[in-house]
Every structure is written in C-alpha cells, then in structure tokens.
Amino acid sequence: MTEVLRRIDCAKEYIYKWKSEDLSIGFVPTMGCLHAGHLSLVERSARENDKTVVSIFVNPAQFGEGEDFNEYPRDFEADVKLCREAGVDLIFAPDEASIYPDGHSTYVDVSGLTDNLCGRARKGHFRGVCTVLVKLFNILKPTRAYFGKKDAQQLCVVRRMVEDLNMDLDVVGCETVREKDGLAMSSRNRYLGSKEREAALCLSRALNFVEKVIASGERNVNAIKSEVLGFISNQSGVRLDYFEIVDACNMRSVKVLKKPCLCAIAAYVGKTRLIDNFYYE
Ligand code: AMP
Q: Residue 186 C-alpha to ligand 1 middle, in angstroms?
C-alpha cells in the first residue's frame, strides 16, 4: 500500500510512527518523471530498509534563470503507478509554497566541491539541491538516502554536507542505469526528438572513447581533453558544455590522470542539457 502525501505535517506523522516502531527508513529524493534509473534506487532502498519513501518535487531553487524549470517533464500519475508497482510505502510530493513559504531565508552552501563541473556551469544549482535535501531529510528523517552516480558531483556534495553538518543518515551511491544503447537514463531524455535521441549517444560514446584512450596508456589530461573535443566537434546538433577529469574526492581538475578520478561530460543536444560520467578507480 503506497500512501501519497502532500503535506509536511502528515508526512511527519507517518515518519514518527515508523520511528516509534524502530523501523528503518530508506529515502529516494527525485524530481519525478520516474524511469528505471530512479527505480533502481527504490529497489535498493526496499532491499535495505523496512520502509521506503520517495519524494517527488521539482525544486525551483536548483534551477537557474533561463533553465528548464517550467518545461521540466512532470507525470505524477505515471510516477504514482510506478512507485506502487515498486512497493514504495510513501510518496511525499509537497507543493512549492510549503517547501518555500513566504519568508524562507535559509540556504545551505557547500563550498569548494561545487566550484567545478556543474557547480561552475550552473551557478547556485547545488545551493538549491542542498537546501531542499536538508529540508527533506529533516522532514523524513531517513536512515539511508539513495543517490545515483549519474549525478556524481551531487553525490559527492551530499556526502560532504551530511558529514559536515553531522547529519544522522547514510548516503548510498547507486550505479548509473543506461538504455540498451548506452544513453544514461534521465527525465530530460523525454525532451529529445528522434534525431536528438541519436545525437545524445555521443556523450556515452565520448566516455567510451576516453576509456579506450586511457587504456592505450594516455595519462595527460590535456591530451585526453583535446581528443574528446575532436570527437564531439564531429557531432552535429551537439554543443559541449564541459568535459573534465577531476579528482573524485575533491572535484578539482587534474593535469595527470590518477585514481580515483571522475571523467565527467555535459553537453547540449539541441536545447537539452545532458550529463554523464565514469569513475576511473
Ligand atoms: P532526479 O529526479 O533527476 O533529481 O534524480 C533523482 C535521483 O535519481 C538522483 O539521485 C539521480 O542521481 C538518480 N538518477 C537519475 N538518473 C539515474 C540513472 N540513469 N541511473 C541511476 N540513478 C539515476
């Protein structure tokens, strides 16, 4: 039985009841429009916890000006169905006014780790992410929270925040789920027309290409980067936002490849911004 709650006080009541019964709570924060990537987090949570909560909230604070907050795909009915089938115990889907009521003035900023990659490309993005997560963690009091490695910088930032703020939960990172042809699943893939869908493959292909370049013995990051630039510039309809190789612990760009690092790419396919990555570890 999947409960769907929109109000913070109602969600808290459920959580208090479960806590009083000493039940563990797994939490999967999402912006909805669920796909198999999200569901892999849900399945893991269901395996590891007594109760699983999914939040569905398109968080305005993590979108910058000119970004796709208004267009972001929303399909609540389908999400509820998928959650029911996956055995989710509670869907928490608050509205904007209850998360950010008039007078809301507190934001959470993780410094350093957010200077590079998506933090650099999307100013204020992680501030929005961290702020909403702290609020959701406080409301839902999860034992464990599940995040995809597809958003590798987000995972790294959230781990740091949870540690720095002495928050009482475990952050669990889950592997990226891909379509058969290699495209990383993303709610934003719904924006893609059929030609764009084909062009979008260049992200995962560029990363496969990088793996081969690394396997051939190349360790110089500038050399790898220029190979990637060459690879992407041949793809019509695709504009590279960044390709970076960073230290996986601090998200700082490295000059020479060394484990563990993260190879991360972001590119616009038409108007749609997609990201992908792999860890070299
Ligand atoms: P979103 O709804 O895009 O905010 O994503 C919610 C959570 O699902 C985040 O922790 C994402 O990293 C994770 N996620 C999104 N896409 C995938 C994927 N293809 N594989 C695994 N996790 C994913």
A: 7
Class of domain 3-174 as given by CATH = alpha beta
Q: Cα dihedral sign for 45, 50, 56, 61?
A: negative
Q: Which of the four CATH numbers 3.30.1300.10, 3.90.180.10, 3.30.1360.40, 1.10.390.10 does domain 187-280 have?
A: 3.30.1300.10
Q: Distances in Å between the alpha carbon of 72 and those of 75, 81, 272?
A: 10, 20, 11
Atom of ligand 1 nearest to the CA of 34: 2
Per residue in 171-219, pLDDT tens? 999 999 999 999 999 999 999 999 999 999 999 999 999 999 999 999 9
pTM of the predicted model, to two decimals?
Answer: 0.98
Report the catalytic residues: 38
Q: Which of 54, 79, 151, 273 most suits a substitution to test ligand 1, by most atoms within 8 Å of the C-beta? A: 151
| Ligand 1 atom having least distance to the Cα of 186 | 16
CB 248 within 8 A of CB 281: yes
Residue 72 sits at φ, ψ, to 5 deg, of: -50, 130
Residues of the chain below pLDDT 50? none
Residue 202: how many CB atoms within 10 A of its CB?
24
Backbone angles phi, psi at 45, to 5 degrees: -60, -45
